[in-house]
TrEMBL record:
Source species of the chain: Streptomyces marokkonensis
Name of the molecule in the record: Uncharacterized protein
Biological classification of the source: Bacteria, Bacillati, Actinomycetota, Actinomycetes, Kitasatosporales
Length: 257
């Protein structure tokens, strides 16, 4: 096993703002209506590139399909299925993508949407025309919101990392742990990311040697990727956080239509 670790400094996300942002998105979704499969906003505008393919709008069993915006090939739609839509309890959605060179199925749950408590994501993907042990990937992630903001704002640590993720294929497994902490006088967070890599099954001995030999290169790659992500986060996020609900709603409508 090889463990890699890197810390970045991130602009904070105030928890009340996050709750307001989620509420804006849910209010917008619930203000739409379905007409002959089209999704129509309250002001009469049509939501582009999405249609209701099956079921009743925002009810369990409803299936939505992308209609293609240049990124999705004809005949290869993205399908989103509603498992549950209850703002006091949970939102459960499943997403499926299929293409000649592979496909993916992802499920996600947001618990207590009106005051986000827990986010869970899991799924599987397949890729054609690659080495067989790498052709099937599965994984998942879990974010415990209460623990995240307690650690980020007060430094109180939980027994396990607030954000955890894993991914595995036939040859290897990766585990990720993310822990925030109060960092600077300006309120920014110090966020430490730890990645553990190991081989699986018959590939474990070979992977152990390869990972040790490549450890320095992997550490540089991780640090570079996280630093780049942090730079983008710190550029874009403050602009979003500065928006109130009305401005955020208008920005979503402008982008989406």
């Amino acid at each position: 096993m090889v463990a890699l670790r890197h810390t970045v400094v991130l602009a904070p996300v105030p928890r009340p703002w996050l709750a307001d942002a989620v509420a804006v998105l849910l209010d917008l979704a619930e203000s739409t209506r379905a007409e002959a499969g089209r999704l129509v906003l309250r002001d009469g505008r049509t939501v582009p590139d999405v249609r209701l393919a099956e079921g009743r709008h925002l009810r369990p069993g409803a299936v939505y399909e992308s209609t293609g915006d240049g990124d999705v090939e004809a005949g290869e739609p993205v399908r989103i299925t509603v498992g549950e839509w209850n703002r006091r309890r949970a939102l459960r959605l499943a997403l499926a993508v299929s293409a000649p060179d592979g496909g993916a199925a992802v499920r996600g749950t947001l618990h207590r949407p009106d005051r986000p408590r827990l986010v869970e994501i899991g799924g599987r993907a397949r890729v054609e025309n690659v080495w067989s042990p790498l052709s099937r990937v599965s994984g998942g992630a879990r974010l415990r919101c209460d623990d995240w903001w307690a650690a980020a704002d007060t430094g109180r640590s939980a027994r396990t990392a607030p954000l955890r993720a894993r991914a595995e294929c036939g040859a290897a497994r990766a585990e990720l742990r993310v822990v925030p902490a109060p960092g600077r006088l300006d309120g920014r967070w110090d966020v430490t990311v730890t990645v553990r890599l190991r081989g699986r099954r018959l590939y474990r001995p070979v992977a152990a040697v390869a990972l040790r030999l490549a450890r320095s290169r992997l550490q540089r790659s991780l640090a570079g990727a996280l630093d780049e992500l942090a730079a983008r986060w710190n550029t874009e996020l403050p602009r979003l956080v500065a928006m109130g609900p009305d401005a955020l709603r208008e920005a979503v409508l402008t982008t989406g239509t």
